Amino acid sequence: MYYYKKKDMYIFTAEEKEQAHNISTLDFLSRRYGYTFKPSGNGYRCKEHDSLVVSNDCKGWFWNSRSIGGGDAIDFLKKVENNTYEQALVEILNPSSSEIKCEYTEAAKFSEASEEKVLLLPPKAEGTFKRLFAYLNKTRCIDSTIIQTLVRKNYLYEDSRHNCVFVGYNQKGLPAYATLRTTLTEKKYRKDVLGSDKSNGFYLKGYNKNTVYVFEAPIDLLSHATIKNIAAGNNREWLNDTRISLGGVTDNALENFCRNNKDIESIVFCLDNDNAGIGATDKLMEKYAAMGYSVSSEPPQAKDYNEDLVKLIKSKSNKMTV
Predict the structure, then answer these.
(1) Cα–Cα dist 168/184, whole Å
(2) 152 Cβ partners below 8 Å, 6+ apart?
(3) Given the DSSP bridges, would you call strands 175-182 and 163-169 parallel, antiparallel or unpaired?
(4) Is 0.85 surpassed by the pTM of this model?
(5) Among 9, 72, 99, 310, which residue carries the largest CB count within 10 Å?
(6) What is the DSSP letter of 137?
(7) At what angle are helices 14-22 and 73-80 packed, to 10 degrees?
(8) pLDDT tens digits, residue range 233-279?
């Protein structure tokens, strides 16, 4: 989002507009106005204004006493607060500093680091998350018990566009990071949700708080957890270990995690078995060893841990059919 001073207007990217249209109206109203909601019929009813309801997709809304409604949070700001479309986008994309204008030039663009990040989680799919379960369990071979647990604990869900959404929480227990992964096997689509704070990342704390296993992506993290279950013959084995994914090979999330979890003594790097992963592992092991941690590396045998898991499952299946 940029402010173009000469024409006194904001300029938004297509991705920002899409994100603004797809945020959860339920979350937006709760965050901006402090409204609370309870399930009611095919949607959610506001406790503070009982004639205000949000539909089951968490986007559409209708305010009965005012006879107004809309399909998303942008419509709410336009119809309830009389905002223009541009003003509504500014409020949604940058609510903490909507009055701050940054001059747009080719050399100096709006700095995201200067604003407080607000996570804009996409709305959940209606009903059960069938596409998510099929993709993660059947295609990626991840243990169904792990998937069900993460869905129940709100670490994982399927959005209205049928992407997998992996949610990371901050120290206050609030969503602060989320990354998307398509459920379409023929496509490669992955990106962080707008407003994600990569210093949080996606992590799962286990009973063992002294050691953390580090991965590049959530699916590799869950694949490692599944492999542990298979090796132990116990679908609860994964609960013993603490794991974190970095969303790449930069260590902002790991650094923050170690800072906030003083029990961590050992770090096991499980990054991809390719040039980028190997190079990053060497640098990070040197860095964290110098910080006083016990460090080691357990790279996957194939490129990543999901490839290892899929090969393991196929191998077991072939043995059973012989």
Answers:
(1) 23
(2) none
(3) antiparallel
(4) no
(5) 72
(6) I
(7) 80
(8) 999 999 999 999 999 999 999 999 999 999 999 999 999 999 999 99
Beta strands in 17-136 (DSSP E): 37-40, 43-46, 52-55, 61-63, 68-70
Quickly name the fold that domain 130-321 has.
Dna Topoisomerase Vi A Subunit; Chain: A, domain 2 (3.40.1360)
Where does CATH 3.40.1360.10 sit in the chain? Answer: 130-321
Sign of CA dihedral 54, 56, 59, 61: negative
Alpha helices in 161-304 (DSSP H): 218-232, 252-260, 275-290
What class does CATH assign to 2-114? alpha beta
- Which among 129, 313, 153 is positioned nearest to 239, based on CA atoms? 153
pLDDT of residue 110: 34
Q: For residue 299, what are its two tokens?
A: 């790279």
**Ranges for all domains in the chain classified under CATH 3.90.580.10:** 2-114
Q: What is the DSSP letter of 159?
A: B
Give how far Cα 47 sits from Cα of 25, 34, 38, 51, Å. Answer: 15, 11, 7, 9
Question: Both tokens of residue 39?
Answer: 């399930």
DSSP assignment of 211-241 equals EEEEESSHHHHHHHHHHHHHHHT-TTGGGGS
